[in-house]
Amino acid sequence: MITTQYKDLEAFNEFAQSNALVKKGDISNALPLMKRVHEITSSATGADSLLSVAASVRLSKLYCISGSYSSAETALCVPSLKGLSKAYALQFLSEVRLLAGDPENSLIAAEEACDLAEEQNSADTDVTVFYGCYTMKGLSHLCLGHEEEAEDLLQQAARWSPCNGPSAQLKAMSNLGTCQWREKDEGDDVKRLSETMKRDGGDIKEDKEQVKEMDETIIRSVRHALEIFEEGLVEAAAKDTEESGSGGMCGPTMDVAAVGGNKKKSEVMAENRDKNEILVERSKELEFAIAYSNLLCSTAQAHRALRHDTKAAKLLLSALKALETHDEASVLPVRGRVLGLMGRAHMRSGNAVTAEGLFRSAVDAMKTPYALHDIRYKYELSVIQMAYGGLLSKWDKREVLGERFQKESQELLSSLPVFPASFRLSPSFELPLF
Question: Which of 4, 14, 178, 367 could form a disulfide with 33 if both were Cys (CB 3.0 to 4.6 A apart)?
Fold first, then answer.
């Protein structure tokens, strides 16, 4: 598994120094150090070794964060690789291209990665490669509007994800739920976002009545997505992969409230304490905390779409709590997503002052390198700016600032790639290695 190679990279002082700078968000000074690590590993173990590929993936990731996607592609050295090493490099190349808004070429890279993964010798098969390859092939199809192909591939990714650990399982369920999500096509994204913000600032009674007017297909899709998201949350607290559902057939099973059945109240409470302890412990690991927080956000958005506002609010508080022990720069965009959703909830409830503070903090969190060169968080930022602008436009002497935020939102949204109406970037998709 390529991520285990990062442990071996820790033997290099330059790698530790680079990581320390990345944690603080200093990508420009981290890049040359990581480039040196890649040069050393390529020279010592060969460019085709998994250790060297792990270094190239980390280097490519830093180039992505800095906004240099062409350099990110070059850093992967794909033409010089073969076999499993090439499959891993192609998987990340697919991620790079999708983040750059190029799903067509992302699919080409993912298809080749899948072919190489499936060509492995059965005697020494690396099963950890399948989750990432199937995920990227599925997400590329999803971004191209090929929904049936995407669902089948993301189902396969979910079945393989337990081999890659709890974080991968959360990401897999998040993607599978996103695949089910459908939204009304209200024209271009700018118009759609404007209509959404109008509803956020509208009357609560009118808002609740709108569920009755939603297309039944859309309601079913959101409910299906919600079932999958909630199954993912159950898996997040499972003691091991044998307790989770995605190790076998994937898809909605029982919901969270149904777990426990006829057990005594004391037994259920004890189980809940155990699960909370597992979540607290796992959330100390950065990748898990981010994946868990994002899944909680997506679940909250599904509840919000069905106007279950109280449930949504509790989930967002849990999403924020999952990140509280982390101060890494990579956490900021996720925290911004949570704060933005909280701001919209308070805006709907008429708590304008609280909403304004949350929006301001969300915008600050989003205007970091990790967010500004990632189409997923750029979309989230445009949503937050539109909502923030709508709120300020109703305040005396702050109308000009409100108009500025809304204009920035529209300009940002117009710069993003156009994906099919059946698939939007919110709820967001999760990438295996990024």
Answer: 14
